[in-house]
Amino acid sequence: MGVSQRLKTRFRRFLQRPGTTVDLAPLEKLLPAIEAREEEVSAFDDAELTEAAAAASSYEEICALGREAARRGLDQRPYDVQLLGAMSLLSGKVAEMATGEGKTLTAAIAAYGHVRLGNGPVHVLTVNDYLARRDAVWMEPVYTLLGLTVGWVNEASTPNERRAAYACDVTYVSVSEAGFDFLRDQLVTDIDDRVQRPLRTAIVDEADSILIDEARVPMVLAGSVPGEQDPVHTAAALVRGLRKGRHYTVAEDGRSVAFTSAGLAAVEAKLGIDLYDEENVEQLSAVNVALHAHALLHRDVDYIVRDNTVELIDEMRGRVAQRRRWPDGLQAAVEAKEGLDATAEGEVLGTIAVQAYIGLYPKVCGMTATAVLVGDQLREFFGLEVAVIPPNTPCVRVDEPDRIYATRAEKEEALIDEIKRCHADGRPVLVGTLDVKESEQLAVGLNAAGVPCVVLNAKNDDEEAAIIAEAGAYGAVTVSTQMAGRGVDIRLGGSDQADRDRVAGLGGLFVIGSGRNDSRRVDDQLRGRAGRQGDPGGSVFFVSLEDDLVVRHAGDTVPPSPRMNADGLVTDPQVDYAVEHAQRVAEGVNHEIHRNTWRYSVVIEQQRKALAERRERLLTSDVAALMLLDKSPEKAGEMDEDLLARVARSIALYHLDRLWAEHLAELSEVREGVHLRALGRLDPLDEFHRAAVPAFTNLVPEIEARTLATFADTEFTEDWEPDEAELVRPSATWTYLVHDNPFGSELDRLIASVGRRLSGTGSR
After folding, report:
1. Higher pLDDT, 733 or 697
2. Is residue 102 part of an annotated ligand binding site?
3. In this protein, which residues make up the domain named Helicase C-terminal (predicted)?
């Protein structure tokens, strides 16, 4: 059979979709040739299939053999649209495929193809450890039939397990674990201690989330340095009893807080000092940070406390952000607020932003359900184009207009009434909330209304697969914080689809959003949980004019007296526009933050690459020994050649790593300090470059100077070890991601505070 006319028509319709930048016609033309090989390939036995797979060299062969391997290994025959997605990945694009369209299998066929086209090894980068392990294990039968090896890495993997996983043809790993392994490999003193091979190809799952939302997140390798707890705990105790309105005021956008004159007087009275005296800057900073933690960061919204640990919540996914922490003392301030010991940030030994790490792969492609809306950013930051893949079966989901209410209380009452009505009919409902606190409050309200529900949030995300799998069951009500990256399909009638026809007759899964997110993509991902593979379904969002998004970004566009019904439901078209406008503004703000953050990161990444090349030469050659022979010939002629090479390499690597850590610390201080120069109308970025470039220029001569000094001052024997020359590396290292500071840097906050003081808003 050839490709149906119906499928061709849908392809053409999707090619006309606004924002699509890739013409799928050339790939569509290959589908008949792939299908023509199906009968021949299906006649192979397993050994013949594996042999043929080893020789594949074209898209047609790769897709035909990949389809047959999936049929045998998983009892799934990939649809033509999945093959179209795989070919888009092979051609280096980001494939937009709707939820439930089989992205995992699509990526497996593409990974096999990249290996056969000489682009291996392939790393499939996921958003979390769970998906890395699940997808690797799930797809292993396909890879085995295709003659490839597959491995996976998670946070608990040992160095040997990591090395074995990265030695495979295809490795599934979260982007953070892959980045941390890269950073650790950059500090080895023996090449055999590396776990990764040279980076070649990355297939990025949830590409918009990783490449856009997390792109500016720095991954950090830190070394042990004693932490200071007293200042933050003292400051936390000082602000704990302060009251909003009397002692401090919070800005309408919820992103800044300021002492009132009464609040400042109360704090200074307890300390017995004038906080604005020059010698008290450190205490002023600590108090400001503590106030931000006290007033602006909320438990079960921005973070949870579990096992005596503060765990940050990823606002895009509603789940715990693994190993992430706030910078600039804010993490310690929140820990002090909760009565916990402050965890040390440590000395930064190495750091790389997610965007910079992805940029190290010569070939990058990806897939997601929502790429078009960030197509311009994917092109700007990664040079990637978007290919929109049509669904295998047309989507018949009914997306209702937003229901907008005047107040939050009216919205919540209407929301519970709607869920109660659906539940009475037996129609399954999935409610997406904005944070953990809201999900728990909604659950209380539903239980009071006689509606049992299951809650999925950051506190129980280890149970997510089981919870989501049953969200389509008859009568099910599931309340969840965001659905992006959950990685489990919702089947009508439950996981066994026992009541599929019954649920379909009721209209299928009904998705309700309890509010609009800062990103349309997150809303679209929530909607996409209904209407999977042509299933019936519906969606609607409940919004109030008191929602944070509207207050922060659309206050001026909401009419003062909008038309509304007696129950508070707003019927004014101008309000609909205001909500859409608020979301576009929020997206624009995030885009600008991404662009500005990356501008600072560019010079650091260039310097890191230059130093990494020098380190590689030191690690893999005798360049350090040759330098000592040239600069200190008398002592170096006296030593055995092998001993000299080992000594020179150890000393030079130590000083290079030591100076890079010092350089990173200096750049952090520079980054803070340039904001003061901005008060003098100087461009902070120009000032940052003006300081960062000369500092790096001095780095290489200093490495050589310290290496020569250590060599001259040390006596060497055959069993010499670096610690004899006090070349001691940190006794412990750990990794974490730096969460975006929602309130700017510590110095930003301090400047704002000083500015308010000078303008009189904070004076007595």
Report:
1. 697
2. yes
3. 414-577
